[in-house]
Write the structure tokens for this entry.
Amino acid sequence: MSQETKIKYFVYIRKSSDREDAQMLSLQAQKRELKKSIKRTGLKVVGWFEESASAYKKGRKEFNRMLGEIEKGKANGILVYHLTRIARNSFDGGNVIYMMDDGLIKEIRTPEKAYYSHISDDKFIMQIHFAIAKKSSDDTSQFVRRDIQSKLLKGEYPIGAPVGYLNLNKDGIITGKRHESKKQFMLENMADKEGRELKRVEPDPLLAPAIKKLYEYNIKGIYSINDLREISYDLGIKGQRSQKMLTKSTLKVVLSNPFYYGAIPWKGDIHEPDDLPRETAHDPIISKKMFNKSLEVLGLRSKPRSQTHNHRYTGMVRCGECDSMITAEIQKGITYYRCSKKKGKCSQGYLREDKFEDQVLETIREYVFPSEFVEWALDVLRSTNKEETKRIKNLLAIQRKRLTETEDELRGLLKMKLSKKNLNNDYLDDEEYLSQKKELKKEKKQIREKIEELENRNDNWLEQCEKFFNFTMNVEKRWDEDDPEDKRLIFKVMFGSNAILKDKKLLIKANNPFIKREKLSDKSKWRALRDGFRTLDWAEVYEDLAFVGGRFGDFRKIKA
């Protein structure tokens, strides 16, 4: 009797909308493939479990129910399309391996391979698969956090803007369901008149005035919340999906959202307008005074903020004890930085701004490149520019070929869908067609963006590198000039929001590609450093360092 005939299998099918699952087959497609495998091998299947859920965290309902049934002895094998369907987190992966060690699960099978509980190499390979899947998910999560932080530093809202505003893509086109041709025309006309580029978030030309009017009604203090619901509906402010009158709770959110006076609220912190680069941050619809009055009328007014001055480093430094943001206040004409204590009690004291800046300058000096190294590095980089240009041209050729192949795949997919042989969806059903079409269009867009990026790098990578070196050589001098805005920009560019203040000591580390001066003392390592600079993706570097443009010639906004 074969191993398979002794085992009763549960089939587990999972599909998630998470980024790490983007290339996985649909539930229906997985089911079809597994049925073929069952027919081919003659497996004894005693139950099917199917769900749409992420495996990044534990707690999947159907998965846990299946393991519970296995513990009761109703099955001792699992059939899945791929091992990543089982787990992308260490808890579920470890639990399955433990159940195999206990003999509750005799075998886990995919259409390509079987993994047996009595073979240690099989379990080891499974652990590797689970670890790789977890690493992929962790990297995705880290990328998302990094992307959010980058947007916040640029003054951009990381998620969809609230009613009264419109989200725009990098080409200035309104995204999502709020897109209307009339609004698009009005925004473009407005930007042309003002002689500027459209931002990633713009006030809705039709609803922004309605939001302001709603606040004006509220601060009069004579209307009930139900009155305001009706007023908002008459003004055209409705539920985005239902298009019905706003609920009481939603209306209160609208009337207490700091976003409307130009701030960015994010995870308990409020990034004030003065702390945001005006070139990219959204424009306010109402004043801060009107917002505070609205909170007062709603009974939600917070404690008055002491930050009425241009504090240089708020929004970029966290408390090393409680992880709250560092705030600032002025006492007898002197600025002090301290923990905001938004996350609870904290024992940290105050630090004078001049003492704060002395520590920043001390750190900056550690990253000032010596002129000898810069001259040598630039000479070598210029001499290899031709080689780099040739390399990028080769990459462009590869990407353009990929673009042609993707376009051919799209045309082939359509032909297959419309084929007479596919009338009953025998080869490609609607769900699979739409899914594959979506992925191919996504890939096509990514390739085009990569081509555009390579074309830009081909033109200006050496120029951007020279600007970066020039900045590092002159940053100490610029700091000494004591321009408040320059100091804030220097801090943001070099250290981002990675600074920590604890026991009056500032703990900061410069962003990539800044390198400590001490590492340049050994000339034998210069060649490796030069190669590192040469291969950097400078468009990405400029994006990560949040070059907010305008004041410094070498900080002008360079689009990737």
